[in-house]
Amino acid sequence: MKNIVIFGAPGSGKGTQSDKIVEKYGFKHISTGDVLRGEIKNGTELGKTAKGYIDNGQLIPDSLMIDILASVYDSFGAVEGVIFDGFPRTIPQAEALKQMLAERGTEVSVMLNLDVPEAELMDRLIKRGQISGRADDNEETIKKRLVVYQEQTSPLIEWYQNEGKHTHIQGSGELEKIFADICEAIDKV
Ligand code: AP5
Ligand code: MG
Q1: How far apart are CA 28 and CA 93, in angstroms?
Q2: What angle (nearest 5°) sits at the alpha carbon of residue 102, between those of residues 98 and 107?
């Protein structure tokens, strides 16, 4: 059982590379952003709460996020592997993930840090915004998301280095080259 954290700034390619991992390894994929967008689409109470944060480029409160994550994880049952995409995003979330997995007799296998220069992130997301229909893919909100990443999420790099789980992945360039580096890291654990 492998638990893969796919980590990186907004637009770094977490979703794109997760799809490729799912295709090759058959792992289950949990994207907390996709879960929240699904709730918004279905007009649930959770979706109504989440919308205000997402449209403003802010993070949903940790306690809410942690409960959602545990329930999705448990819904998977016995699987070969799980990819965590967009979670954890804060140190309390990383600590909660560690505890949740320990309670289930497992742990994070590796954290893959997709590293992409900020100018390229902006460029990718503005381009995607022209077709995605994502409410947070506009210049003003993208800038806020990048600030939130720097302030609240990037400290996790050091946190996972201290756990001995961090692997740096060059996240710009050819999709297939990035994927090959990811596969190498997954095959090692
Ligand atoms: P989330 O949905 O996770 O968004 P994000 O982290 O901002 O990242 P994106 O999904 O925009 O980018 P990505 O890294 O998946 O890149 P992608 O593969 O799409 O979260 C959205 C919001 O939900 C948050 O802001 C927050 O409000 C809330 N939320 C979610 N999780 C939360 C949590 N744990 N706690 C609290 N709040 C939470 O690629 C981007 C683009 O680049 C695509 O167009 C793609 O085609 C292109 N691309 C990919 N790879 C390459 C490449 N190698 N070369 C050129 N282009 C590429
Ligand atoms: Mg994504």
Answers
A1: 20
A2: 65
CATH 3.40.50.300 applies to domain 2-181: yes
Atom of ligand 1 nearest to the CA of 58: 27
Instruction: Give the rounded percent of residues in the chain with a pLDDT score beyond 90.
Output: 98
Cα(5) to centroid(ligand 2), Å = 13
CA atoms of 65 and 70, how far apart (whole Å): 9
Please report the pLDDT score of residue 189 as a whole number: 96
Known catalytic membership, residue 89: yes
Rounded average pLDDT over 76-87 = 96
* pLDDT range class, residue 132, cuts 50, 70, 90: confident
φ/ψ (deg, to 5) at 25: -105, -15
What's the whole-model pTM score? 0.98
Ligand 1 neighbours, Cβ below 6 Å, are: 8, 10-16, 32-33, 36, 53-54, 57-60, 65, 86-87, 89, 93, 124, 128, 136, 145, 175, 178
What is the chain's mean pLDDT, rounded? 97
In this structure, the dihedral spanned by the alpha carbons of residues 173, 111, 152 and 105, taken in order and rounded to 10 degrees, is 160
- What are the phi and psi torsion angles at 56 (to 5°)? -100, 5
- Judge whether 134 counts as a catalytic residue: yes
Measured between alpha carbons, how far is 138 from 156 in angstroms, rounded to an integer? 26
* Active-site residue identified among 2, 37, 89, 124: 89
